[in-house]
Request: fold
Amino acid sequence: MRIPPRFTQHGAIALLGGGTLVTVIILVFIVVFVLEKGLPVLSLSFLFSNPEEMGRAGGIFPTLIGTIVLPLLAILIATPLGLGTSVYLTEYTRESRITKVIRFGTDCLAGIPSIIFGLFGFIFFVTTLGMGWSILSGGLTLAFMILPTIIRTSEEAIKAVPKSYRDVSFSLGATRWQTVRRVILPNALPGILTGVMLGIGRSIGETAAVIFTAGSSLRLPSSIFDSTRTMAVHFYILAREGISSENAYGTAAALIIAVLLVNLTAYWLMHWFISRRS
Amino acid sequence: MKLLGEKGVQKILLVTAFSAISALLLIALFIIKEGLPFLITYGLGDFLLSSDWQPQSGKFGILPMVAASLWVTLGAMIVGAPLGVAGAIFLSEFAPRPVMRVIKPTIELLAAIPSVVYGFIGVMVLAPLIRSSLGGPGLSLLAASIILGIMILPTIISISIDSILAVPQSYREGSLALGATVWQTIHMVTIRAARSGIIASIILGMGRAIGETMAVIMVAGNAVKIPRSALDSVRSLTANIALEMSYATGLHREALFATGVILFVVIITLNSIAILAIRKRVGKR
Reply:
């Protein structure tokens, strides 16, 4: 018996649509579930008071500081390197074997799992260079991890600046670097910031790479040589060691809101960038 | 910057351009430096094929962890790949454009949700569900597979949609003009043309599943034994590193780094295949 093609098509649409619906429902459920359980715990006093009894009671203030400082340091290190790479690749060289190797290396680095970054950061920054479990070790490790994100997004942003802008700048007698600094970078800025925000978002949510490099001290850090604990690590420890599921939900809600806000800003910047182009 | 001059700036940019590749080499160098001596003295065969993991008595066989990682990754593929590819096809070919423009970024946004949150959902929702309906400890190979399968959905959907949308419209028009239905066009023309991108998305998802650590630690149960059923508690390679790293010393620590070397090689291989597949597609355009 031959099934009519129209019938197969309706079946396929139903099946594919059903699959899509399941996917969207599951993903949305995760966010809604955590927020529903966590938002009642989340309050200003929860965010800004110190934890007591290892986090069983009290708030998450030191981890909030850790979550701000660590991604900030990572981005301060990774942005100049990543931006430099993308400017070099787009403005200073033609496609060649070297650019292929650089792109391949960037893509490979993007696929390295965070536990490997954690192992590396531990043996290199913490042990070999003697930085110990510190904000510095953690920030450097995270910088390595988010470098590919920054390189890729800034490269896209720079490529999107119309060639005519460069032509005009050169014809006015500007040098290459003057053109990059005064014409290309200002025009590519929103796109570059998108990459920066995505990098911050990834750093905020990271656990495996951070726990082995920045440690998990609950004390308020006084310098970048102190150990710190981010919200993601705090949440992991609360949940895994069964310290307090109430505070775990509260921390998870804060974590999700932070990550979503940062990523929404990234999308908004990208949208603004694209709509300004056209 | 004036002091540096054009040539100076160019040199600085050239140096930064090698930052990513230097980072990759530095990581490879230090992981291998810590792990390779152990692999050579202990023997790759004994390390990979023995199921005796007793660090206190100097026995380092990681077969249970290798088996667990393979099964968990396979399970994640079974859960994630069909759903992800189905979602990508539906969103790119059937859903109205405005719907796709809303759902695709939403799904990509969900890729940013920290893995510990996925793990926590696994512990609080999925594991009790498995325990009450199927039996066993709940924290299991099955739970880890499902959670990882969900975690890789955004990767698969996002890259597959991009590669399906990159198929020239003329291919679809040609097929429709020959009297094929929309569905025949999709599965005989569009998907075939976008094949390498879809496969690449699945391989990248696979790399993510093998490398995932925190979510797996939370939901897989972490028992060091070769799984006999999907309901068994298992410990993946990544979980073994993360769980024991904090107190391991000497040979034990070297064995964990050796596990890192194995993981590194597997993932670089998988990613190289995926990257080359995506490149080939772009090259053809």
Notes: Chain B is about 80% helix and 0% strand. Chain B touches chain A through 88 residues (CB under 8 Å). Chain B has one domain: 27-284.
